[in-house]
């Protein structure tokens, strides 16, 4: 049986990404090295460097490739329930061990490496923002959210409080916290009439 | 003229912090080293290490010591105007050059170094949170914000969208953005009745 070149390349990519994630979980992101990934994956380090110029970009690819499918929005017709379910899915994955510390380290790396920041935005934040806007525009049309709501801002207001807790106060991100954030954002700070 | 020991220590601390900030602006946080700070300040590096066990903690101290006074909340009786003025003051300082890249690097460091994260929270985030809650509780009592508003969450909802832009999308933080965030948070996402 022969394997075609694209299949072999895909299998090697998968092996490298699995080695990256396994090692990152074992030693932590700070101690992860492309040399160690190459050794674990059984490839030369130049094979990795040809495709990923930095460990930040390799790790970004590894993290996102395995998990993109879970980030689709449900649409049950109840915007609060759907936001809650989608945000809790993301939070369960990205804010808890084993992913939590790794995603946090990736965002930390994005503060020092503009290529990682750009990749994080292009690969993960921008697509999530687009999906969020599509889901919220539908909710606006159904009268479930205010027609005045600034759709361009909504990813920042929805995700910002989660990132604040993940990156700044570094307290645990719980479903209860997601509930409280959604309640606060839907109610608004203005006095009730 | 003789100088008492506490005065000499305070002067030396000031010299070290000024050297830290000057060097950080010249070479960037990533290339900052305690050795270079010691040389610039004219002290031995052990003098620095005795007080600051890492460059992250030295930089945190240097950044915050010089700027704590500006973060007090005004109280003109108009909560939206006061929030706007206070947030714009912080944004002008922390999100623009020369501080912006340095503060961003500090938060990046906090993702890898728990002592920096703890120091950032104790020295800057917690006191700001306390001041924000005091100011908003007064506004609640004056009927300017909803009595249902979750005061424990308000720092996350107010600051989160700013940190999201600073750390994740890395777009410029402008006064217009602050205005839009405040407008969105006060109005809420629920449909207007």
Automatic annotation (TrEMBL), chains A, B:
The cross-references to Gene3D superfamilies, in alphabetical order and at most eight, read: Homeodomain-like (1.10.10.60), Tetracycline Repressor, domain 2 (1.10.357.10)
The UniProt entry, under InterPro entries, shows:
Homeodomain-like_sf, HTH-type_TetR-like_transc_reg, HTH_TetR, Tet_transcr_reg_TetR-rel_C_sf, TetR_C
Q: Which UniProt keywords apply?
A: DNA-binding, Transcription, Transcription regulation
Q: Which domain of life is it from?
A: Bacteria
According to the record, the segments passing through the membrane are none
Q: Which residues bind DNA?
A: 33-52
Q: Which residues form the HTH tetR-type domain?
A: 10-70
Which protein are we looking at? AcrR family transcriptional regulator
Which species?
A: Streptosporangium lutulentum
């Amino acid at each position: 049986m022969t394997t075609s070149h694209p299949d072999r390349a895909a299998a090697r990519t998968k092996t490298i990404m699995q080695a990256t994630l396994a090692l990152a979980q074992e030693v932590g992101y700070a101690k992860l090295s492309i040399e160690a990934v190459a050794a674990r994956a059984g490839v030369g380090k130049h094979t990795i460097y040809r495709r990923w110029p930095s460990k930040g970009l390799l790790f970004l690819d590894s993290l996102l490739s395995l998990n993109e499918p879970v980030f689709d929005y449900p649409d049950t017709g109840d915007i609060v329930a759907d936001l809650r379910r989608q945000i809790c899915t993301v939070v369960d994955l990205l804010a808890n061990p084993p992913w939590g510390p790794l995603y946090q380290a990736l965002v930390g790396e994005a503060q020092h490496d503009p290529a990682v920041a750009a990749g994080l935005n292009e690969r993960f934040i921008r697509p999530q923002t687009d999906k969020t806007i599509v889901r919220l525009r539908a909710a606006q049309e159904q009268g479930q959210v205010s027609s005045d709501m600034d759709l361009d801002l909504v990813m920042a207001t929805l995700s910002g409080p989660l990132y604040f807790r993940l990156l700044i106060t570094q307290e645990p991100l719980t479903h209860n916290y997601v509930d409280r954030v959604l309640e606060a954002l839907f109610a608004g700070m203005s006095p009730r009439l």
